[in-house]
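Dimethylargininase
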Amino acid sequence: MPTTRRYLMCPPTYFTVEYAINPWMDPTQPTSTSLAVEQWTALKETYERLGHEVHVIDPVAGLPDMVFSANSGTVIDGRVLGSRFRAEQRAAEADHFRRWFLGAGYKSVVMPTAVNEAEGDFTWTGSLLLAGTGFRTDPHAHSEAQEVLGVPVVSLQLVDPRFYHLDVALFMLDDQSSSPLVAYYPEAFSPGSQQVLRRLFPDAVIANDDDAVCLGLNAVSDGKHVVMPVEAVHLAEQVARRGFEPVLVDISELRKSGGGPKCCTMELRG
Ligand SMILES: CN(C)C(=N)NCCC[C@H](N)C(=O)O
């Protein structure tokens, strides 16, 4: 069943690729800010058409990656754990989001002491917080998240630099039922973490290489509709076979910075 969600997004008004902090970014290749804005607007309108509430934070000049709002906060039951970026180029984003949360009336807003790229590396299953590490978020941020948010955390080790955040390797199809359904790309994880995922989610949708390299796992599900990159053809078929409805979006311009639909979408829970 779909449930209505609240999302926080940031328009890519100042989007460009002017530095390289992941293997997808090549500052020598041209980017189009107007195309990025067009694709982002279509994504936002897709959420609104599906009945979701979208809040928008003002973009800031000089912060070209601020469009990836999912990196700036993990919100569960109305408690906010902000972010602390690994790359200095993105460091200033964290405080803009902190101020947005306070302005929006959130009472519990905690900024992390360890490197923590928020929903980039944290995925809420409905009962557990899956937490990635290996490239960005520091393992200490996992225990910090457990303390601040008061939820059990399961650490997962990422091993392929192309899938530098958890949310380009795994997403929740259903976070509302007692047996949550997940989709993931096993090769992005260490052998031990693959075992953990098999134990936790024996019924998972398993993505293939083609799904993973178009950042197909950077998807957003409301329990029925799954907003995902248009190139993720095989994954969309798998998702449909499980009874979900793929909603395909073109987010190719933002992929030049290593992001997809989920990266542009922070969920405000509670
Ligand atoms: C899953 N999420 C939120 C992301 N993967 N975010 C994309 C961040 C892209 C940015 N150039 C960076 O490298 O930080």
